[in-house]
Amino acid sequence: MLPDKQVPIRGRQALPHGLFSKEKGAARVAFLFKDSFNAAGPGRKGAASPAARGGGAGRGGAGPAVAGAMHSLAQEIRSFSRANLRKQRTRVTTLTGRRIIETWRGACLHMEEEEEEAAPGGGFVQDLSADLQVGVVKPWLLLGSQDAAHDLETMRKHKVTHVLNVAYGVENAFLNDFIYKTISILDLPETDITSYFPECFEFIEKAKIQDGVVLVHCNAGVSRAAAVVIGFLMNSERLSFARAFSLVKNARPAACPNPGFMEQLHKYQEQILKANGSINNHD
Q1: This prediction's pTM
Q2: Are 143 and 125 in contact (CB under 8 A)?
Q3: Which of 4, 10, 207, 233 fits 214 for a cystine, CB–CB 3.0-4.6 Å?
Q4: pLDDT higher for 175 or 5?
Q5: How many Å apart are CA 23 and CA 76, to the nearest integer?
Q6: Element (H, E) at 215
Q7: Could you report the per-residue pLDDT of 196-211, keeping only the tens digit for each?
Q8: What is the DSSP string of 110-151?
């Protein structure tokens, strides 16, 4: 299994990898053996080895053994070949979900995009069915996924006139049939979703004033779009986060903003409370 790390891809410089200096290696081995002798009696002149103190081989026996060990290690160092090293491969996942495989070849770093593997028979079963469930938060305010936004029959069934698309990289399907507003938002906990609220709320209010019906959607209709609709209810109707979230959850049970958005919505409630002095816990 490859090591996996979550980092954005930036420019990388090909660097030598796995280089080994024979001269420095030999010096290091000599130092280690010297250090092991000093450990028997550091700082004491003429300290005898444990073998000498016990009446064993003493100085005459230890010397040849150490010399033989050093000779053997020196031979290993001289015969070292970089080709014998195991190749190191690392998987890097970017913020957009792309997977890059990094492999050292000689002194250069090579990068190639990993192809998606087919899911094995066991484990999770991928649900490929379209999610056409549309949450009716208000008669004129709907919440759904891109599947619903791309299904003309569903759109007409709910009398949609305006579409607020807050997904990233999802195209608008029926430009001649509906009024669209696209605001690309990344579904990441660190994304400041409240910074997009003014532009989103303006479009929703515009649809309401024009007696339209607006569908707010992202990719799955779970996190980004849900957070926008919750924030809109909190702002326009001065609802508490708990009350706004309850209304959205009842309309679309799948709604569940990511932890970062949830934290921001709680702070958004504090801002509303500070600006207005009170919040509404009722419809």
Answers
A1: 0.57
A2: no
A3: 207
A4: 175
A5: 12
A6: strand 214-217
A7: 999 999 999 999 999 9
A8: EEEEPPPPPPPSSS-----S-----EEEETTEEEE-HHHHT-
The CATH architecture one would assign to domain 135-276 is Alpha-Beta Complex (3.90)
In angstroms, what CA-CA distances link 96 with 76, 92, 113, 186? 46, 11, 13, 9
Residue 237 contacts residue 280 (beta carbons within 8 Å): yes
Which of 30-39, 197-206, 265-274 shows the lowest mean pLDDT across its residues?
30-39
The predicted-structure confidence for 101-135, as pLDDT tens digits, reads as follows 777 666 676 677 766 555 444 445 555 688 999 99
CA distance 47 to 60: 15
The pair phi, psi for residue 4, each rounded to 5°, is -125, 130
Per-residue tokens: 148: 């619903």
d(C-alpha 161, C-alpha 150), whole Å: 14
Residue 279, pLDDT score: 81
Domain boundaries, the chain: 22-79, 135-276
Virtual CA dihedral for 199, 233, 193, 173, nearest 10 degrees? Answer: -60
Which is nearest to 241 in space by CA: 187, 202, 281? 281
Q: Catalytic site residue 218?
A: yes
Of 108, 200, 218, 256, which one is the catalytic site residue?
A: 218
